[in-house]
Amino acid sequence: MRVAPLGGGRLISQPSAPERIASRRSRENDFPHRHFFALQPLIDTELPARVEIAATFERAGYACVTHQVVRQTIALDWPSFAEKSALRGDSFLARLSANEFRAGMDALQAHGDSIDASAPVSEEIDWLVFARYGSRAAVNKTGNRPGPSTNFRNSALGSADPSASV
Questions:
Q1: Residue range 53-79, pLDDT digits in tens
Q2: Is the CB of residue 24 less than 8 Å from the CB of residue 38?
Q3: Residue (of 66, 61, 59, 54) closest to 135 by Cα position
Q4: Domains in the chain: how many in total?
Q5: What is the DSSP string of 13-28?
Q6: C-alpha triplet 117, 9, 139: angle, nearest 5°
Q7: pTM for the model
Q8: What is the spatial distance between Cα 84 and Cα 69, in angstroms, rounded to a whole number?
């Protein structure tokens, strides 16, 4: 099995398998930092939309056969999340000015006073499975094999509802 970077996410593949799996943030995902830091300009320019992720694979000869929005735990509790955030290890946080970062940290820490700080902190990511066109896995529910003309904009990938799935 091979794990390769995918522009902020991962592409997992077995050389002999016709499937590819991608997990990553998209513009539509909810993640804690976006609520406290001035990240919207970076989100708009740096994170692809779900439909853009699918189009990248489609151009490479793959069809999306599964899409789910999943939650992953990123910190055991709010204090741990605040400590990790203060290190600016997230590439978006690293690009903020000192003033923007300080304002975001102040908001993040203040929020910790109004919630159950012992609860795990999680974020949404998209989990997508792609199959090579013509493979058995790429046959859709109607028995048709999707081809390069598949329109992902009409699927749940183009939906604004983060709970939608293909």
A1: 888 888 888 888 888 888 899 999 999
A2: no
A3: 61
A4: 1
A5: E-TT-SEEEEEE--TT
A6: 115
A7: 0.65
A8: 24
